[in-house]
Amino acid sequence: MRALLKHWGAAIAIGALLTLLYLFIYVIMQLESYALLVGSLGIFVILAIAMYASQKKNWYQK
Questions:
Q1: What does the angle CA 7 – CA 13 – CA 16 come to, to the nearest 5 degrees?
Q2: Is the whole-model pTM more than 0.85?
Q3: 3-state SS string over the chain?
Q4: CA triplet 49, 15, 48: central angle to 5 degrees?
């Protein structure tokens, strides 16, 4: 990622995000009984973070 982005901070952030994603998927695969509940809560949290991060973005500006 460092070679593609030319910034250490962005490369570390993407690496951390991918690590968290793979950890989340691993945990869901290990939970047999609660996989649907944990997956639904995880998707809800991800959606809430995305909505909060993009709330000040002006989507109609050219």
A1: 140
A2: no
A3: CHHHHCCHHHHHHHHHHHHHHHHHHHHHHHCCCCHHHHHHHHHHHHHHHHHHHCCCCCCCCC
A4: 5
